[in-house]
Write a structure and sequence with these properties.
This protein is α/β, with parallel strands linked by helices and 156 residues long. The protein folds into 2 domains: 50 residues, Arc Repressor Mutant, subunit A, CATH 1.10.10; 80 residues, Vaccinia Virus protein VP39 (Rossmann fold). Helices cover 29% and strands 29% of the residues. It contains 6 helices and 9 strands, in the order H-E-H-E-H-E-E-H-E-H-E-H-E-E-E. The strands form 3 sheets. A 4-stranded mixed β-sheet has the order 6-7-9-8. The chain has a 3-stranded antiparallel β-sheet with strand order 2-4-3. Strands 1-5 form a two-stranded parallel ribbon. Strand 3 and strand 4 form a beta hairpin. The radius of gyration is 17 Å and the shape is globular. The mean pLDDT is 91.
Length: 156
């Protein structure tokens, strides 16, 4: 997300943007914070972006540059634990892709309710292509774009 914003949002320096990555798995968080990727993970990224934002880190591995790596915060989060999400909030955009499909119905509803509470009014929730809010919650407004369907928290 940070690379996409740097490459596509000319006015990025005029805005206060925070990016937070979260997971329940502390090992996954440590790996994400380390920012080391194998060649396969970067195979679809243009060479110019790899050259600009990554440095070699051993044989066949690349590490995202320190300035960019430090611009993303990583935190442990259990989406179905409301108390655990209490310190998170005000999100304008939440990407929760291909996670809810692994939850049972009650956990799915709890996670979505907690995400809703953590989002800013007018915020967007982006799910995976195989996920839908239709049986989970009617609190969001469906927004259809050319290449995506997203769910928006009402402004008021």
């Amino acid at each position: 997300m940070a690379i996409w914003l740097l490459e596509n949002f000319a006015g990025i320096d005029d805005h206060d943007i925070d990016i937070t990555g979260s997971d329940i798995d502390t090992a996954a968080l440590a790996a994400a914070a380390a920012g080391v990727f194998g060649a396969r993970a970067l195979q679809r990224l243009p060479a110019a972006l790899i050259d600009r934002y990554f440095a070699r880190d051993g044989e066949g591995a690349w590490r995202i540059i320190d300035d960019l790596r430090r611009s993303v915060a990583f935190t442990r989060c259990n989406l179905i634990d409301r108390a655990g999400l209490a310190g998170h909030g005000g999100y304008d955009v939440v990407f929760c892709r291909n996670l809810l499909i692994y939850f049972d119905d009650a956990s799915r509803r709890a996670a979505v309710d907690n995400l809703y509470a953590a989002m800013a009014p007018g915020g967007f929730l982006c799910l995976g292509h195989s996920e839908s809010m239709s049986r989970i919650s009617a609190r969001f407004t469906v927004r259809r774009f050319a290449q995506a369907t997203v769910y928006q928290k009402p402004h008021a």
